[in-house]
Amino acid sequence: MKLTKERIVDAGMAVFAEVGYQNLSMRQVADRLDAHAGSLYYHVRGKDELLALMADRVCRRAYDAGTEALAALPSAATWQDRVHAQATTLRLSIKQHPGGAQLLAESPGVLSPGALSLMERLLRTLVDAGLPADHCGIAADTLLSHVTGFVLQEQNQPATPPPVTAELHAALREQFPLVMSPLMPRLSQDEKFAQSIRLLCTGFAALS
User: Which residues form the HTH tetR-type domain (predicted)?
Assistant: First the structure.
């Protein structure tokens, strides 16, 4: 099968899911494609460009998912609803790729059309909501960083949480009374994420 940039990105995503950001190599990607490593460089200049292309793919798919979610909103949807739709689809899109949050957080700092598209649409949502223009950039960047960080924590959580004995729980409640109190509700990840986006939107609204 002919070697293309798309096939190289496909293979890069598969290898990345197995070995992670730091251990990914062009040779591993070439082996996945049953090709010589040197032949990859006709299409991708190196590992940094490959990682950037992989991150861009995640962002593009998140953008497309966000487009569908926004189109499904009722005509009376608020700007907060639009922000929530974009944040939720971004989170779900990143989670579809093992290590996807790490990929976005650590990918080379190059201009990515996919990432820029996500930022542009979110900025437009905030500007159209009437938020002060000089705050919209920070607000959009804060929200996108929050989504990436939230998924990064989700993807790094152990499959099985460590056991907590009654004695340890009692000791923790004595040492950290606020953390272990009802002030820190035990929510599902979905509920926690939804509430966090609502809190951010409340803060953004206070700027106008």
Answer: 2-62
